[in-house]
Amino acid sequence: MLGLILKTTSKYELIDMESLITITNFLIFGLLLASPILLLIILNRLKAKRTLILYSMISLFVHGILAMIFAWYSYESDLILLKHYGYNMDGMSETEFYRNVSPENMEQVKSLETSIMGIGWPIKAIFGYLIFIPYLIFVYIGKTLIKKLKKNKTMPNTGFASY
Prior knowledge:
Blueprint: H1 2-7, H2 11-45, H3 51-85, H4 94-97, H5 106-116, H6 121-154
Helix pairs in contact: 2-3, 3-5, 3-6
Protein backbone atom coordinates (compact mmCIF):
# COMPACT_ATOMS: atom_id res chain seq x y z
CA MET A 1 0.00 0.00 0.00
CA LEU A 2 2.84 2.40 0.85
CA GLY A 3 4.36 1.70 -2.56
CA LEU A 4 1.17 2.89 -4.24
CA ILE A 5 1.23 6.08 -2.19
CA LEU A 6 4.89 6.74 -3.02
CA LYS A 7 4.39 6.30 -6.78
CA THR A 8 1.84 9.09 -7.07
CA THR A 9 3.19 12.53 -7.89
CA SER A 10 0.20 14.86 -7.81
CA LYS A 11 0.74 18.07 -5.85
CA TYR A 12 -2.34 17.39 -3.70
CA GLU A 13 -1.04 13.96 -2.82
CA LEU A 14 2.34 15.45 -1.86
CA ILE A 15 0.58 17.83 0.49
CA ASP A 16 -1.40 14.91 1.92
CA MET A 17 1.78 12.90 2.44
CA GLU A 18 3.46 15.83 4.20
CA SER A 19 0.37 16.39 6.33
CA LEU A 20 0.19 12.73 7.29
CA ILE A 21 3.85 12.67 8.30
CA THR A 22 3.55 15.95 10.22
CA ILE A 23 0.46 14.76 12.09
CA THR A 24 2.22 11.51 12.99
CA ASN A 25 5.27 13.43 14.24
CA PHE A 26 3.05 15.64 16.42
CA LEU A 27 1.20 12.61 17.79
CA ILE A 28 4.44 10.91 18.79
CA PHE A 29 5.73 14.15 20.33
CA GLY A 30 2.42 14.61 22.16
CA LEU A 31 2.74 11.08 23.51
CA LEU A 32 6.25 11.95 24.67
CA LEU A 33 4.86 14.96 26.54
CA ALA A 34 1.80 13.20 27.95
CA SER A 35 3.35 9.90 29.03
CA PRO A 36 4.89 11.18 32.30
CA ILE A 37 1.61 12.79 33.30
CA LEU A 38 -0.36 9.64 32.46
CA LEU A 39 2.15 7.55 34.40
CA LEU A 40 1.72 9.73 37.49
CA ILE A 41 -2.07 9.46 37.22
CA ILE A 42 -1.83 5.66 37.00
CA LEU A 43 0.59 5.47 39.95
CA ASN A 44 -1.69 7.76 41.96
CA ARG A 45 -4.76 5.60 41.24
CA LEU A 46 -2.85 2.46 42.19
CA LYS A 47 -1.81 4.22 45.43
CA ALA A 48 1.71 2.96 44.91
CA LYS A 49 4.28 3.46 47.60
CA ARG A 50 7.67 4.85 46.64
CA THR A 51 6.14 6.79 43.79
CA LEU A 52 9.38 8.63 43.06
CA ILE A 53 11.35 5.44 42.47
CA LEU A 54 8.62 3.80 40.39
CA TYR A 55 8.03 6.99 38.42
CA SER A 56 11.74 7.47 37.76
CA MET A 57 12.36 3.92 36.58
CA ILE A 58 9.25 3.54 34.45
CA SER A 59 9.31 7.04 32.96
CA LEU A 60 12.99 6.83 32.02
CA PHE A 61 12.39 3.48 30.32
CA VAL A 62 9.23 4.60 28.49
CA HIS A 63 10.80 7.93 27.58
CA GLY A 64 13.86 6.15 26.14
CA ILE A 65 11.67 4.00 23.92
CA LEU A 66 9.54 6.95 22.80
CA ALA A 67 12.60 9.12 22.12
CA MET A 68 14.06 6.33 20.00
CA ILE A 69 10.79 5.91 18.08
CA PHE A 70 10.48 9.67 17.55
CA ALA A 71 14.05 10.05 16.27
CA TRP A 72 13.77 6.99 14.02
CA TYR A 73 10.42 8.05 12.60
CA SER A 74 11.58 11.58 11.84
CA TYR A 75 14.52 10.12 9.90
CA GLU A 76 12.37 7.55 8.07
CA SER A 77 9.71 10.14 7.24
CA ASP A 78 12.36 12.29 5.57
CA LEU A 79 13.40 9.29 3.47
CA ILE A 80 9.78 8.60 2.55
CA LEU A 81 9.28 12.21 1.50
CA LEU A 82 12.47 12.17 -0.57
CA LYS A 83 11.28 9.07 -2.43
CA HIS A 84 7.86 10.64 -2.80
CA TYR A 85 9.37 13.75 -4.41
CA GLY A 86 11.27 11.57 -6.89
CA TYR A 87 14.73 11.77 -5.33
CA ASN A 88 17.02 8.92 -6.47
CA MET A 89 19.01 7.64 -3.48
CA ASP A 90 21.08 5.32 -5.65
CA GLY A 91 22.32 8.04 -7.99
CA MET A 92 26.03 8.56 -8.57
CA SER A 93 25.95 12.24 -9.48
CA GLU A 94 23.87 15.26 -8.70
CA THR A 95 21.97 14.99 -11.96
CA GLU A 96 21.02 11.40 -11.19
CA PHE A 97 19.88 12.36 -7.68
CA TYR A 98 17.55 15.10 -8.90
CA ARG A 99 16.50 13.71 -12.28
CA ASN A 100 12.90 12.88 -11.27
CA VAL A 101 12.39 15.84 -8.93
CA SER A 102 10.16 18.58 -10.27
CA PRO A 103 11.62 22.12 -10.18
CA GLU A 104 8.95 23.33 -7.75
CA ASN A 105 9.98 20.70 -5.20
CA MET A 106 13.74 21.15 -5.58
CA GLU A 107 14.16 23.44 -2.56
CA GLN A 108 12.17 21.09 -0.32
CA VAL A 109 14.19 18.07 -1.52
CA LYS A 110 17.51 19.84 -0.88
CA SER A 111 16.45 20.76 2.66
CA LEU A 112 15.33 17.16 3.31
CA GLU A 113 18.61 15.88 1.89
CA THR A 114 20.54 18.19 4.21
CA SER A 115 18.51 17.10 7.23
CA ILE A 116 19.34 13.41 6.75
CA MET A 117 23.06 14.03 6.14
CA GLY A 118 23.91 15.22 9.66
CA ILE A 119 24.18 13.09 12.75
CA GLY A 120 22.24 9.86 12.67
CA TRP A 121 18.95 9.17 14.34
CA PRO A 122 20.49 7.16 17.23
CA ILE A 123 22.53 10.18 18.33
CA LYS A 124 19.44 12.39 17.98
CA ALA A 125 17.54 9.92 20.16
CA ILE A 126 20.24 10.04 22.83
CA PHE A 127 20.31 13.84 22.83
CA GLY A 128 16.52 13.97 22.94
CA TYR A 129 16.52 11.54 25.84
CA LEU A 130 19.01 13.62 27.82
CA ILE A 131 17.33 16.92 27.05
CA PHE A 132 13.93 15.58 28.11
CA ILE A 133 15.01 14.36 31.58
CA PRO A 134 14.47 17.81 33.21
CA TYR A 135 10.88 17.71 31.90
CA LEU A 136 10.33 14.44 33.75
CA ILE A 137 11.66 16.03 36.94
CA PHE A 138 9.52 19.14 36.41
CA VAL A 139 6.37 17.02 35.97
CA TYR A 140 7.04 15.12 39.19
CA ILE A 141 7.72 18.30 41.18
CA GLY A 142 4.58 19.88 39.71
CA LYS A 143 2.52 16.86 40.73
CA THR A 144 3.94 17.01 44.26
CA LEU A 145 3.18 20.72 44.59
CA ILE A 146 -0.37 20.29 43.28
CA LYS A 147 -0.93 17.43 45.72
CA LYS A 148 0.29 19.56 48.63
CA LEU A 149 -1.88 22.50 47.59
CA LYS A 150 -4.96 20.27 47.37
CA LYS A 151 -4.14 18.79 50.77
CA ASN A 152 -3.84 22.26 52.34
CA LYS A 153 -7.15 23.43 50.85
CA THR A 154 -9.08 20.43 52.13
CA MET A 155 -7.70 20.49 55.69
CA PRO A 156 -10.08 22.33 58.05
CA ASN A 157 -8.78 24.79 60.68
CA THR A 158 -5.30 25.07 59.26
CA GLY A 159 -5.29 28.83 59.24
CA PHE A 160 -5.37 29.03 55.47
CA ALA A 161 -8.26 30.73 53.80
CA SER A 162 -10.02 28.59 51.25
CA TYR A 163 -10.93 30.42 48.09
